[in-house]
């Protein structure tokens, strides 16, 4: 590994574990409770967290959602992708998407 490569640990997390980053990065004017999505606790919903040195620095959620205007029975939507400012550009967001 070269000096510029970052090592992340990425795994599934609870919906509630995404809320702090969702709020700080995506919805700073809202409360933590307002950062919950209606789909967060659906059976097929997946929440992924990206950790660097034990600190959660990126999150993402994927859930089933029919695509607007589509006749297909179902699709998937990535939502709530958030990476802390200090981890941006490090590949954390891409790591979250790979898990999903």
Describe the structure.
The protein has 100 residues and is an alpha+beta fold. The protein has two helices and four strands; from the N terminus they run E-H-E-E-E-H. The protein has a four-stranded antiparallel beta sheet with strand order 1-2-3-4. A hairpin with a 2-residue loop joins strand 2 and strand 3.
Compact overview of the structure:
This protein is α+β, with helices and mostly antiparallel strands and about 100 residues long. The chain has helices spanning about 20-25, 90-100; strands at about 10, 45-50, 55-65, 75-85. The radius of gyration is 14 Å and the shape is globular.
Distance between the termini: 25 Å
What is the molecular shape? globular
Structural class: alpha+beta
Beta-strand residue fraction: 25-35%
Mean pLDDT: 88
Radius of gyration: 14 Å
Task: Please bin the fraction of helical residues.
Answer: 10-25%
Q: Would you list the SSEs in sequence order as H and E?
A: EHEEEH
Number of DSSP strand runs: 4
Q: Give the biggest sheet.
A: 4 strands, antiparallel
What are the low-pLDDT stretches, counting only 5+ consecutive residues below 50?
none
Main sheet strand line-up: 1-2-3-4
């Amino acid at each position: 590994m070269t000096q510029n490569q970052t090592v992340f640990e990425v795994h599934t997390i609870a919906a509630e574990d995404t809320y702090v980053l969702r709020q700080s990065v995506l919805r700073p004017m809202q409360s933590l409770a307002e950062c919950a999505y209606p789909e967060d606790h659906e059976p097929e919903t997946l929440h992924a967290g990206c950790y660097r040195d034990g600190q959660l620095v990126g999150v993402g959620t994927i859930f089933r959602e029919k695509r607007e205007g589509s006749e297909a029975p179902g699709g998937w939507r990535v939502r709530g992708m958030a990476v802390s400012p200090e981890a941006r550009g490090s590949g954390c967001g891409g790591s979250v998407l790979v898990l999903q």
